[in-house]
Amino acid sequence: MAGKVKTRDRILQTSLALFNQEGEAQVSTVDIAAVMGISPGNLYYHFRGKEVIIEALFDDFEEEMRQVLSAPIKRPLDIEDNWIFVYILFEEINDFRFFYYGLASVLERCPNLRPRFARLLKLKQDTVDAILTALEKGGLITFGPGEQDALATRLAAHLTFWLQYRDLTAPAQSSRTIINDGVYSTMIQIAPYIAGDRAPYAALLTEYFKKQR
Amino acid sequence: MAGKVKTRDRILQTSLALFNQEGEAQVSTVDIAAVMGISPGNLYYHFRGKEVIIEALFDDFEEEMRQVLSAPIKRPLDIEDNWIFVYILFEEINDFRFFYYGLASVLERCPNLRPRFARLLKLKQDTVDAILTALEKGGLITFGPGEQDALATRLAAHLTFWLQYRDLTAPAQSSRTIINDGVYSTMIQIAPYIAGDRAPYAALLTEYFKKQR
DNA sequence: GTCTATAAATGGATAGAC
DNA sequence: GTCTATCCATTTATAGAC
């Protein structure tokens, strides 16, 4: 009993790893079974097909993302809190990056995931917007008309696709480095809206950036 | 003779359209031939496989992108010039969006495209950087240390993935609208670095934004 | 729960007639 | 250049034994 991982869970783990490595479209159910050392028939006993596996993985992803996005930040004005928040967000996306990397393929195979995926992005954007509101209320930043909304949208998009961009332009780096890079490039986008002198904020970020390496 | 499009070109056109619509991984050579109303054998006479088609499409894409990116902007300080430049860039990306949408799949099938794709992104980033330099030299914007580099990277990433993000969060819009939206959200990111009052710049952009709809 | 064997479907690719 | 016919490989999916 102790330590024994159920086959069902092993299938999900293996599928996720393979999908992230090679892309969902390149991995067949036979591949998954072969890597695990089980028979295709056994795999089909647990999941009736690849769609079902993908949907189960999305369930996991959605649950974790909702958990992360709904966890309120204790001290919104504290840089460290926001740093950690963005870091965790990137880690979550990185863990399920095959969804983003082969989106067309995934949504074609599982059309019912499209609205769910869209809702998740919307939730991300709303969360970012709420944090910006808190920062403005706290007097740390100030916005002109329409600027907050534009920044929230932009940051959500940045959070969504940065890892992919980085992976393309500077491959062969550890995911640790890429994520850290992503957090910095996210947080630094707030700098221009700092009320008053933005240099100290930038300096603080650079400090964190170095520490995390 | 006149008006007759060669089969080879029709294959490329049809493939591009199908890839953009359904994703490269979901479209087989048989599908392409069927849609065109020709036989699979005929298709194979012109292209020895799907890889060859994809690579031919990338050749087109690369050539057009290089052309766009190397065309010097006449008046870098003029908003209209930059607006048009970004617009054309987005249009180009939109025309070949299957490369971005199903990147994992494409690069898995044609590994030799990876470095070429990466070089193209790099060129994009360098071009953006050059424009920013011109703007700063012209006295329109000012940067703190490291800010220009960060902005150039960010803008390049934004240019690369914005359409995809928009398509997910607000689907069923005309590509015209999505692109226009993208141009605005790109240009507005420069606003915080405007030397002096940034309100006039933002107002001008909003003006263009409305005009283009 | 797990295996073997196999069916059914699809996609990639080629030979040879027209 | 184009078609028909066909073959091979891969993938999905199921039946039945252990």
CATH class of the largest domain in chain A: Mainly Alpha
Structural class of chain A: mainly alpha
**Largest interface by residue count?**
A-B, 43 and 43 residues
Categorize the overall geometry of chain A: elongated
Beginning-to-end CA distance, first to last residue of chain A? 39 Å
- Gyration radius of chain A (Cα, Å) is 20 Å
* Mean pLDDT over the residues of chain A: 93
Low-confidence parts of chain A: none
The helix/strand series of chain A, from N terminus to C terminus, equals HHHHHHHHHHH
Regarding quaternary structure, how should these chains be classified?
homodimer
DSSP E strands of chain A, number = 0
CATH topology of the largest domain in chain A: Tetracycline Repressor, domain 2
Description of the molecule:
Chain A is mainly alpha-helical. Chain A folds into two domains: 1-48, Arc Repressor Mutant, subunit A (Orthogonal Bundle); 50-211, Tetracycline Repressor, domain 2 (Orthogonal Bundle), CATH 1.10.357.10. The first copy, chain A, is 72% helix and 0% strand. The longest helix of chain A is centred in the middle third of the chain and has 25 residues, at 113-137. The radius of gyration of chain A is 20 Å and the shape is elongated. Chain A starts with 6 loop residues before the first helix and ends with a helix. The mean pLDDT of chain A is 93. Chain B binds a DNA duplex (18 and 18 nucleotides) through helix 2 and helix 3.
